[in-house]
Write a sequence for this structure.
């Protein structure tokens, strides 16, 4: 009799766990303050590289920009695997959703579909852009080594086809970038390619940011998650901002990187605000919430996996002429910065 009673009690607890409404939470004042604290951290992390590179009075050393760029690459790659794909697998394997979701690894399948979809979009965009440039008598480097040729990783440096022996790679790259900046430009196929690339990257990160904002608003272990997410969003903002800072656009379109940085900064606070508004009815572990978050996390993971491995790793190291000709110290610095970003972001996955 007691065993039957315990079993029915366990069933009731499981039912409440999956379909019951969320209850009132402690630390309400701190949860509200989290909206503004994370807003400052995320927006500051994303805006700093953009404004620092455009500023005439704030002279940030190139080595600092390089660190932010490579550190950000590591952050994006770790986010894809640890903070998106792993939670997607967990959400779509939840005991609260139908057992049919366990018949196939849907999270991995959606991630794969997302990768191929992104590849096709970029392939079509690249062919369209190349055709447009050819129509006006210009060419495009297929590996994206032109100024601003690839939005996701920014200009990698340009090497003259016949540089003088006295002219170093860095001087050649700098002079080409300065000459490109000096000439007036308008919206072009190359600009469209950059904007599409950065929009795809931002789309994956924004989905993730809104979901974690919702979770933070109603999570019972709020204190730990809050501290972790402050660092998480700041590091991720630094990664996004370092990409936005290297967008090479006509002067009248300089607002695009700033707007993109602000958009990233407000997404998690927006998720927190929405979560607090529906805290009495929203259950993050319900069947609907688990399926929605699992599907969106899996899609976002595919976007960041493709962006991180193809756009960032491959283009910044394997296809980058400047990096191939760089000293062992510069290469070690770049790889070390990237691994530090990935390591710290992966470590944060222990708590969030």
């Amino acid at each position: 009799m007691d065993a039957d009673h315990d079993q029915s009690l366990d069933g009731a607890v499981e039912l409440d766990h999956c379909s019951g409404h969320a209850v009132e939470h402690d630390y309400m004042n701190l949860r509200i303050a989290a909206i503004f604290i994370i807003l400052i951290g995320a927006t500051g992390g994303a805006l700093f590289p953009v404004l620092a590179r455009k500023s005439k009075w704030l002279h940030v050393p190139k080595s600092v920009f390089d660190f932010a760029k490579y550190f950000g690459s590591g952050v994006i790659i770790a986010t894809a695997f640890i903070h998106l794909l792993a939670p997607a697998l967990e959400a779509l394997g939840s005991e609260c959703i139908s057992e049919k979701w366990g018949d196939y690894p849907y999270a991995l399948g959606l991630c794969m579909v997302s990768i191929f979809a992104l590849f096709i979009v970029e392939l079509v965009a690249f062919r369209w852009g190349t055709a447009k440039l050819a129509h006006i008598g210009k060419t495009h480097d297929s590996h994206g080594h032109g100024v601003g040729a690839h939005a996701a990783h920014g200009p990698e440096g340009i090497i003259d086809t016949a540089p003088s022996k006295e002219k170093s790679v860095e001087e050649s790259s700098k002079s080409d970038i300065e000459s490109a900046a000096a000439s007036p430009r308008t919206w072009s196929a190359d600009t469209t390619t950059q904007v599409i690339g950065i929009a795809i990257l931002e789309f994956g990160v924004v989905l993730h940011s809104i979901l974690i904002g919702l979770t933070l608003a109603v999570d019972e272990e709020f204190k730990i998650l809050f501290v972790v997410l402050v660092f998480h969003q700041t590091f991720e903002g630094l990664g996004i901002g370092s990409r936005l800072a290297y967008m090479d656009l006509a002067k009248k379109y300089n607002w695009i990187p700033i707007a993109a940085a602000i958009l990233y900064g407000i997404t998690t606070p927006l998720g927190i605000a929405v979560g607090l508004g529906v805290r009495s009815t929203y259950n993050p572990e319900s069947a609907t919430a688990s399926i929605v978050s699992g599907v969106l996390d899996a899609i976002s993971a595919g976007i960041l996996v493709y962006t991180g491995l193809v756009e960032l790793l491959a283009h910044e190291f394997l296809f980058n002429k400047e990096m191939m000709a760089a000293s062992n110290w510069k290469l070690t610095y770049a790889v070390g910065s990237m691994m530090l970003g990935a390591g710290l972001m992966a470590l944060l996955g222990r708590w969030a």
About this structure: Residues 5-15, 142-185 have pLDDT under 50 and may be disordered. The chain has eleven helices and no strands. The radius of gyration is 23 Å.
